[in-house]
Amino acid sequence: SAKQSGRGRTVVRDHSTGVDIGYARQLGHDLARAVLNDEFTVYYQPIVDTLSHRTVAVEALVRWNHPRDGLLPAAAFIDIAVRTGVVNTVGRWVIDEVCKTMRTWMDEFGDTGPTTAYINLSARELLDPTLGYALGRSLAAHRIDAAHIGIEIVEDDLSDPIQIARLLELHDLGHPLSIDDFGTGYSSLSRLLEFPAVLAKIDRSFITGLPNKRNARVVEAIMAMAKALDIQVIAEGIETDEQARVIEASGCQMMQGYFFGVPQSSHELEETWRYGSSAVIG
Ligand code: C2E
Ligand code: MG
Ligand code: MG
Ligand code: MG
């Protein structure tokens, strides 16, 4: 289906995804150059403990400082990066950047800073046999223990036994594994038996509808299952006080969303922590 865009360009959209194919192709070209030009940056979103509201972890989310289109969220380009394979290079850079940042945070904030940074890995990155080596090299370079770098994986992406094997390796190396967008996959329950996740993130689509009764019951059901399996739960995409209160009552251990903090640069986060700790002391 083609139609004229505002700029007089013919827009051709992919039938299944609605993505503007011409723009996607352009971004694909730009991505190859972006890696060489160092145009990526990592934003960090706070993950707070439900009881104390203290930031106990962060999620690392890649951003692209596009020279023409400005700062692009991962949602705007990560699928293209996966399709073109650039995601492997970007992912390596993200891993090293996150380890570097964790080192500076641990040096400045110690136990009062976040203890875990979660990175997102696509299924494609899990297929790369040198992933474990790259992770190990960055951990060593910045003197970070694997326990401090968690790995989020969207279970619906996993189709190959090699990917499961790689997750088991990462788990054995000491990385906490987390199932992202939990509940949206077609095989959530069987996946739980295939790899040793210690954490599941309730997808935002379940949180958005809260405090609606039916949504609240789905959250309760996920919590009951997680408890039976000894898995901790993060609720993601919390945007309102009302949603936070339902989650607090559910027994969910951690919370994440715009209500608690948007993804931001490491420097911005450091400022809030410095301000926060001095406010407590002074
Ligand atoms: P995700 O891991 O499920 O990350 C959550 C997404 O929701 C992020 O979008 C985040 O900015 C956004 N978000 C967080 N809180 C809220 C909220 O309260 N309300 C709303 N409406 N949105 C919220 P982002 O950064 O565009 O990332 C999109 C996806 O791209 C991520 O989904 C993740 O699957 C992937 N991704 C991000 N960074 C990386 C990376 O470094 N490597 C790989 N392979 N994938 C990445
Ligand atoms: Mg994630
Ligand atoms: Mg998610
Ligand atoms: Mg997602």
Automatic annotation (TrEMBL):
Protein source organism: Rhodococcoides trifolii
Protein name (record): EAL domain-containing protein
UniProt domain EAL: residue ranges: 24-277
From-to range in the entire protein, with total length: 335 to 616 of 616
